[in-house]
UniProtKB/TrEMBL annotation:
The keyword ATP-binding applies. One of its GO terms (biological process) is DNA replication. SUPFAM superfamilies: P-loop containing nucleoside triphosphate hydrolases. It comes from the Bacteria. The keyword ATP-binding applies. It comes from Bradyrhizobium elkanii. This is Putative transposase-associated ATP-binding protein. Transmembrane segments: none annotated. Keywords: ATP-binding, Nucleotide-binding. One of its GO terms (molecular function) is ATP binding. Belongs to the IS21/IS1162 putative ATP-binding protein family. CDD domains: AAA.
Amino acid sequence: MPHRYCRDRRCRMSTTNVVDTARLNLLLNELRLPAIKVLWPQFAEQSDKEGWPAARFLATIAEHEIAERSRRRIERHLVEARLPTGKTFDSFDFEAVPMISKAQMTALAAGDGWLNKGANLLLFGPPGGGKSHLAAAIGLALIENGWRVLFTRTTDLVQKLQVARRELNLEGAINRLDRFDLVILDDLAYVTKDQAETSVLFELISARYERRSLLITANQPFGEWNKVFPDPAMTLAAIDRLVHHATIVEMNVESYRRRTALERKRGPGRPPEHATQKTLA
């Protein structure tokens, strides 16, 4: 009989464990803790074997839940950012742009010193100098540091804002961009000198002034921005808002694309061992 009782007791314990496990999984679903739901059995087993205090067990599974939430958040923010692929600090040729340093850009990518203040970052330089690559790399690093970023060609965003204006929803469209800590406007100088286009661009700059940050890449210095904004007063007002709290980076280097094309055209050159030998007298 005692033997039978022990078997029954183990059976009751086993049934209770199954019920408790099922109930716990339901509770974790209700609390939206998917990482803990997956990981708790293995950590519970390790905890039982090693005699962890309850606090250590809870802290361990909570840390994994937080890490998984962070991973999923970054994944979502990368999708919405629409960054060009492959543009990172590691793939950027800092040696070709000696006026900036990787350390300086990495410091900007922390974000705290300027995004919290709604400050701006302006990258100037000729076409092919790496402005878009650098802007995208900064955007990627900011996302990895917990910020929300949108990368867009200036012309594309301006066209969307024009549509919103025609639909009497420009203010709403600009307000929706507030969810991004940084909007990267690539190739600002390619906006055509059209009153409708430049006016929505100006309204975007004005709306984000001292509240949300902009990163702008431009091929032309401020002195040429009258080609972007047809109204001189609007040009001055836009520049004034952008530079009031801004870091300005000049990237006046030879076009990377042109440099690469010339190197391909020249080829690797004749190896030293096959070079023409001088005739010694």
